[in-house]
Amino acid sequence: MAKLKTWQYKNRKKPRKYRTSLGTTDYDIPMFGYRSALIILLVTFLALLIIPAICDLINVNYHLPTVILGGLCSGFSVSFSQFFIERKIGICRSFWIVGGLLSLFVAMMLFLLIYAGIIM
Predict the structure, then answer these.
(1) I need a labelling partner for 118 at 20 to 30 A (CA). Which of 10, 20, 22, 57 fits?
(2) Comparing C-alpha atoms, which of 86, 7, 4, 2 is closest to residue 39?
């Protein structure tokens, strides 16, 4: 019988930026651990609970502050987890780009969900 060849991915010798707890993957994709996922979930959940409560206390409409601050908290919690906890790089240009783009995306989603009346 002929020996089967194992599949090999491109650029095997290129160093990987992202490490996984389970080993290596074929693609260099960012991974999140349990601690990072918990931080992202808690920050997002608390931001969406605390911001409207504070706005209610000071008699301000909560829609726009929740969209802006909730988006910023969610986006930068993901960026923080990726650049500080998982990769241990710290603040760099990519940190601000990832945080800003994710904040913008989350803010747009919150805007659509809040002003359509689906949540809150």
Answers:
(1) 57
(2) 86
**Residue 87: beta bridge partners?**
none
Q: How far apart are the first and last CA of the chain?
A: 65
Q: pLDDT by residue for the chain (120 residues), tens digit each?
A: 556 566 665 656 666 665 555 555 666 677 778 888 999 999 999 999 999 999 999 999 999 999 999 999 999 999 999 889 888 888 999 999 999 999 999 999 999 998 888 876
Ranges of each domain in the chain: 34-116
User: How far is it, in rounded angstroms, from Cα 72 to Cα 107?
Assistant: 7
- What residues contact residue 78 under an 8 Å CB cut-off, 6+ apart? 40, 98, 99, 102
